[in-house]
Design goal:
The protein has about 160 residues and is of the alpha+beta class. Helix content is about 20%, strand content about 35%. The protein has three helices and seven strands; from the N terminus they run ααβββββαββ. It has a five-stranded antiparallel β-sheet. A two-stranded antiparallel ribbon has the order 6-7.
């Protein structure tokens, strides 16, 4: 990044039609960057999205397991969560899910789909011994929009 800034600064200061910025006490350049995935990574993100949507079309749904990259600590961790929704924010697709995060906090969490490092998501059916007990005993409000029906539902 430093090379880019230096190059831009040199071009700005070489132009004769603008004030001499070299005499200024501080140099400031504002650069707007967009995070764009490679075609391969975008295909993988779309694949995760399709797997989650396919799971939602099943009558009981299920839990997903995947390996996730945590950039702040530069480590890979296993995640097991109940997927609730997908959304797009800050130029990335996110999964909002319920479960335990890598730091042991139980509740709602967001996961960037492009930071999932598993080749495929693993679908765990309800009752699978890999699902943490705390997650398997959660009661969800089930909403069936086709019937205008909402009720409490324990899974399983």
């Amino acid at each position: 990044m430093e090379l880019v800034v230096e190059s831009v600064w040199e071009k700005i200061t070489q132009q004769q039609s603008i004030p001499n910025y070299n005499n200024q006490p501080q140099r400031r350049i504002f650069i707007h960057l967009d995070y764009i995935l490679s075609d391969e990574n975008q295909d993988q993100v779309d694949n995760y999205q399709q797997q989650i949507e396919d799971l939602w079309h099943q009558s009981l749904g299920g839990v997903i397991k995947f390996q996730y990259w945590i950039a702040s600590s530069e480590k890979q961790v296993e995640i097991i969560v109940y997927p609730v929704c997908l959304h797009y924010a800050r130029r990335a697709k996110y999964l909002t899910a319920f479960g335990t995060d890598p730091f042991g906090k139980f509740g709602w969490h967001n996961y960037r789909l492009d930071r999932i490092v598993s080749e495929q998501l693993t679908i765990l059916k309800w009752g699978n011994s890999q699902i943490p007990k705390k997650l398997s005993t959660v009661v969800f409000i089930w909403v069936d929009h086709s019937r205008g029906d909402s009720r409490l539902r324990s899974i399983p």
